[in-house]
Design brief:
Blueprint: H1 3-23, H2 29-45, H3 51-75, H4 88-92, E1 96-104, E2 107-112, E3 115-121, E4 129-136, E5 139-144
Parallel strand pairs: 3-5
Antiparallel strand pairs: 1-2, 1-4, 2-3, 4-5
Length: 149
Amino acid sequence: MGAIGAAGAWLIAALVLGIAELVVPGVFLVFLAIAAAVTGVAVFVLPDLPVAAQLAAFAVWSAVTVLIGKRWYRDYPVEGGDPMLNDRSARLVGQVVVVEAALVGGRGRVLVGDGSWPARGEDAAVGTRVTITNVVDGEVLVAPLAPSS
């Protein structure tokens, strides 16, 4: 395979890795795509570069781009749109819910969305609206609604 063919193969590999990065979740293949592109340019500039040297260059550039990417994401973290996305309990705090089974002796059940949760809090009759203040061991802690001003 000639130098242009080898360079083209590396550039095609870079393109395939770049497309795969778009399809596969995560941020890793882009660094390998950059390394393949740099290797392709190096092969184009140095047409007599042996295959072993090409593979070594790809390995070195892969390591360099991954380390640069790792540092970049450490210094400039990507902030998600919802910090409580996977913390269902934290998402419940502050919600106003309705007592489903009267809270007697500090225990009962409340309706949270389309489900029923065990609850602890001040005694309250069925139908009373209460606020979730915390979630502990699968039980919601509730408090009476603050009076409207």
